[in-house]
Amino acid sequence: MIQFDNINKLWPDGTKALSDISLKIPRGQFCVILGPSGAGKSTLLRAVNGLMTPTQGQVKIDGTTLSLSTQKQLRRRVAMIHQHFNLTSRLSVASSVLSGLLPAVSTARALSGWFKSAHRRKACELLQRVGLTPTHLKRRAGDLSGGQQQRVGIARAFMLDPEVVLADEPVASLDPKISRDILTLIRDAAKEHNTTVLCSLHQIDLAREFGDRIVGMRDGRIVFDGTPEEFTDERVQALYHGAHWEDPPKKAEPEQSGFELAHV
Q: In this predicted structure, what is the pLDDT of residue 249?
């Protein structure tokens, strides 16, 4: 579903943010990206929706290469959930959720607030699914708690029934219980729509709990690719402290697992 082919990113100052990233993420998988700060997690996610253009390599979504000519079309199929919610504080909750339609409606229609009744019904349904009530509809997004704002962000992300959801540290500023609630909402919504989720996290326990697969990044490279069960404490140490374990991950059979394990 998502395919990274030899992705490299070199910033103007000479910093290499991504180095030879090749990765395939099948439809419906919840893939967690882990790694220390500066590992390249956010940069990798931004390559999927065109917010970052690789210096070298290609990104494909369901076989279509992301390029200037396909970017608008593909953005309708990719939604993003942000670390700091990315809501306009003065907008109402209803307007915030409806803004998820922006890739598919004209700017004039969006600015005038003209949306079909079916769109408004869907926004209400999504808000109910993420645990918010009709009383929240007219409230300003900036007046909500952090957990409530992220629920609005999830509802917004699913307005266009995306095939891919990018979640960039979606629970970084939330307490442990709310973090689990938020990740549960994302996982359940994704399963309902058979959506592929690429989610960067810092919390190892949450990665093991929610991920179907964990990809570990360090210094712009993939150093681990496997299941939560294979992501042992020794491998955690290797990822975050640069050590090497004696039993590097074996190569998985692609036809059996749908992904490969990376060598350290």
A: 45
